[in-house]
Design a protein that fits this description.
The complex is a heterodimer. By secondary structure, chain A is of the alpha+beta class. Chain A contains 3 helices and 5 strands. In chain A, strand 3 and strand 4 form a beta hairpin. By secondary structure, chain B is an alpha/beta fold. Chain B contains 9 helices and 8 strands. The two termini of chain B are 31 Å apart. The mean pLDDT of chain B is 95. Classes of the chains: A alpha+beta, B alpha/beta.
């Protein structure tokens, strides 16, 4: 089953959950499933019009989905999706 | 170009021994200048490792005074310095450790008003601020002046590091086209060992860019999670229409 790895700054929206397994067929469906399971994360990931926020980078394995098929990128059963918001400082 | 003295050849002989680094790499460090903005858990270790490596000039910047909660990670500070200027303590520590390094200090944070003057004095900028606005101001000025920006950040146990070189790589504005509305610059825990390790890598990337040694993270981002020590490197892409680098 595909897995989404959640970065630390977004875990406060998921009750500190670090990974999320989903049966979604595409990256976009996986993110939507995540937001449905954890409604508080929706505002951190999506704009009011439903687009993924511009500073959120999503990777499938080690590839930015922008270089693949974007949110339509299909997911294999063992896919690992990583979300990378920008982070700063110490 | 300034030549190395006998003292410097002896002091730095262990890094001069590194294949492909050598005397020429050391000479380049002596003749280089680096700006480190913020001297906290990340910038402090970056600054001291740059000084230790023999950078000729360090320009450092940090506003404010020391608080007790800074002391788990801000290694340029002193326990008896709580309530006192952080920049003064940083200068004292750096010069005590490496008197060969010229240190120019500013007791303020970077912004659109001072970034041009600060960036103009150096070859490489190491940006370690917790504030995205500050980072983006430095990014704009580095891009305008054609200076290398080593950008590192952390959150909890996770770290990110990349090297930006105009006009070859995407810029920071490509990665942060708008400010994350949920970002809280002091809203996460920090272990000094985590920020210190990233500070050391930040210094290393600056050293690589100055000396030409190795393969720096140009156009790539290193991300790692120190909780389980998983490391990944990603290629970065220029954002179409980026107002900073999009016309290059």
């Amino acid at each position: 089953m595909p897995t989404i790895k959640l970065p630390t700054p977004l875990r406060r929206f998921t009750g500190q959950t670090k990974t999320f397994d989903t049966a979604a067929a595409t990256v976009g469906e996986a993110l939507e499933a995540l937001a449905s399971q954890f409604p508080d994360i929706r505002g951190a990931l999506y704009t009011d019009t439903g687009d993924v926020k511009s500073f959120i980078r999503v990777f499938l394995g080690d590839q930015d989905i922008e270089g693949l098929q974007g949110l339509q990128t299909p997911l294999a059963a063992d896919a690992v999706v990583s979300i990378f918001p920008p982070i700063a400082g110490a | 170009m300034l030549e190395l003295t006998e003292w410097e050849l002896e002091k730095y002989k262990r890094q001069i021994m590194i294949p492909d680094f050598g005397v020429e790499g050391q000479r380049k460090l002596k003749n280089a200048a680096v700006l480190v903005t913020r001297l906290g858990g990340l910038g402090g270790p970056a600054a001291i490792w740059l000084a230790a490596a023999g950078i000729g000039k360090l320009v450092i910047a940090h506003g404010g005074t020391l608080t007790p909660s800074n002391l788990n990670r801000q290694i340029l500070m002193r326990a008896d310095g709580v309530g006192q200027s952080r920049i003064d303590q940083a200068v004292e520590t750096l010069q005590r450790f490496s008197a060969d390094t010229e240190v120019i200090a500013y007791g303020a944070h970077a912004n659109d008003q001072n970034a041009a003057e600060w960036v103009a004095q150096v070859d490489v900028v190491c940006d370690t601020s917790p504030e995205f606005g500050e980072r983006l101001a430095l990014n704009r000025e580095c891009w305008r002046q054609g200076k290398v920006l080593v950008d590192s950040g952390m959150n909890g146990m996770e770290c990110q590091l990349t090297v930006i070189r105009p006009p070859d790589t995407p810029c920071l504005q490509c990665l942060v086209p708008e400010l994350p509305d949920w970002w809280d610059p002091l809203g996460f825990g920090v272990l000094g060992a985590v920020s210190g390790a990233l500070g050391a890598l930040t210094a290393l990337e600056a050293i690589k860019m100055i000396t030409g040694y190795g393969q720096p993270l140009l156009g790539r981002m290193l991300t790692y999670d120190t909780e389980d020590l998983t490391f990944q490197t990603f290629d970065l892409h220029r954002r179409p229409g980026c107002p900073v680098c999009g016309e290059s």
